[in-house]
# Entry
Amino acid sequence: MIGAHLPVLLPEAVAALTPRSGGRYLDGTFGGGGHTRAILDASTPDGIVLALDADEEAIVRGRALAADQAIGDRLRLVHANFARLAEVVQEQRLVPLDGLLLVLGLSSFQLGSAERGFAFRLTGPLDMRFDRSEGQPASILVNTLPPEDLTQILWRAGEEPRARRIVRAIVRERERAPIETTAQLAEIVSDAVGGRRGSDTHPATRTFQALRIATNGELAALEQALTGALSVLAPGGRLAVISFHSLEDRIVKEFVRRESATCVCPPEQPICTCDQQPRLRPVGKAIKPGPDEIRTNPRSRSAILRVAERLPDRPVGAGENDRRVR
Ligand SMILES: C[S@@+](CC[C@H](N)C(=O)[O-])C[C@H]1O[C@@H](n2cnc3c(N)ncnc32)[C@H](O)[C@@H]1O
# Structure
């Protein structure tokens, strides 16, 4: 069954972007369109949202929203990976943007569709690509990667402590016959680690998460999107990112920390000579869903929202002779 997608941290994410009429916004992860719709509503009558998704099915679904007369050409939908967001915003002549939102991970539509291969509870091909028009399905990684590389993926992207044991079991099975379905892989992982053992989560959760992240190159895409955001946001424009995974959140947190630093000189240096120019200002603390949201939408439980504001670029030459005592 494919359920509707409940947008996570909706009021918080929309408020973070401070939408206004006439503003231009990018939703890099359209999904079921919940956040896009709310940004459009908050920027009536003429705010524009450029919405991207790597999954063409999400874009096709979004056409129904674009057909709504109240929205019309205020919504632009583009099938694209958010790694390319700066390029797409330029192509759409929407630079500079007033706000940019990314809600990482996958939608309930994708999770609920067996044939997309994201769910260990459903039987489907081991695919896991957001964009089925490019790249290789997860089955290629599972069946062809050297054991050491597969272990690294499970260890790094899944933070799976039993990576070695799981990979040994995968290799044993794939020597007999290729592992083609989600159910097959879920069973191999479950058997390898001795079942659920009183845990709330399915034993294959981390393995599936790691393979999804690797199949879609999600961490590299996020890095590229953050860098791209700096080049398309207006001074005062807001960047808001919702992550569901500690690795993603670390990337966002580190990026904001790096880009908001006023000095990057070595700590032992008494005088600042780096001429570092901060390009972001963190806005507030990280925001997590409250108990009510977690109750109505358990998938929100690991969500974390970080917000930053683009600072104006300093004019060329300014600050060059400014040697500050630290
Ligand atoms: C959690 S859902 C977004 C939910 C959406 N905000 C809503 O309210 O319905 C994440 C979406 O991002 C898309 N996605 C993930 N990685 C992407 C990427 N690198 N580029 C573009 N879209 C991506 C997925 O296909 C999925 O549809």
